[in-house]
Amino acid sequence: MNQCPVNIDIPWINTVVRDRINRGSDGDFDFLVEGLTPDSEPGGVDPQKRLFGNFEALAKLGSAFAPVSNWVARTDTAGALLERTLGVDRRRELPEFERETLVEWFERRGPRVGRDAARRQVALYPDAYTNYVRTERGKAAVRVLEALDVRVTVPAAGESGRAPLSQGMVATARSNAEAVFDALAPAVAAGHDVVVIEPSDLAMFHREYERLLPTDDYTALNEHSYELLEYVYGLLENGASVDALADGDDERVAYHSHCQQRTLDLEPYTVAVLEDCGFDVTTSDVECCGMAGSFGYKAEYYELSVDVGESLADQFRADDAADRTVVASGTSCLEQLDALLTRRPAHPVRLLDRQ
């Protein structure tokens, strides 16, 4: 919307159009999934959209049966079946689910900073990918915040609604948004901050929730939610010691920010924190990694997704970046870079974690 000279919210118009298309006539095979998918949509939503729009339900199953579910998903038979029935390109590596979720890990571990000793208190929002797939970045976030004397809780808040909204499933996105607010409301009411790892989910809190939640609920969450490295930057600016974080020791880093992060003007905070910790940071000037959430998984768009992503990968293969540690803030960017580079990328918070 910021790029439109008359401030027309084109992304939301696109979402509404998708929603209306979804509400067309029932599909021939809707009866096969009736009552089985945990969404709030009527008939007419095609199975591929239901798959991506209900990612958290899929992640719960994948986590519950891990590592067997991961092994099955890697087989040629599963790849061929997913491509034939749901249009998921068999060349795209599927997420590997963790048996223990981030929420379960934290419930077992508990907070390590006492209320009286805490500089601040936060609720760390466990987005679906961090909770079920890339749990290591969630654990690193907890440890980094605690190193800066922040008392952390990790409420079981559920998926933000980004996944269903991307498929035009507005009713499901609204239901998810309401559930997330209910889970985070006690922390917000107590004056605690909400820290978000995944930029696309923070963008939901700051933008789309204005259309999905009552005004007072949206305002409360919008005013109390922060991106993770934005929050760390604020702590350091207000007296927390950078010595509590890992020493970069001039390690060379190549950083790619998420598109949603850039629209919220949050990229500079990550760069500043990494540099404060002693990392030598270069940033990409490529606008898009090409993954775009579920877009890069779909067979009809796979080639285009990779073609777009190669521009970013080529930049990180260039002589001045070829030996740098690759970091990216967004899940989509991490997945695409992981597929295109021989170096495994990481979330920047993992570089700050002493463990």
TrEMBL record:
Q: Does the keyword Iron apply?
A: yes
> From the record, what ranges are coiled-coil?
none
InterPro entries in alphabetical order: Cys_rich_dom
**Cysteine-rich domain residues:** 253-337
Q: Mind listing the UniProt keywords for this protein, alphabetically? A: 4Fe-4S, Iron, Iron-sulfur, Metal-binding, Repeat
One GO molecular function term of this record is: oxidoreductase activity
User: Which named protein is this?
Assistant: sn-glycerol-3-phosphate dehydrogenase subunit C
Q: Which organism is it from?
A: Halolamina pelagica
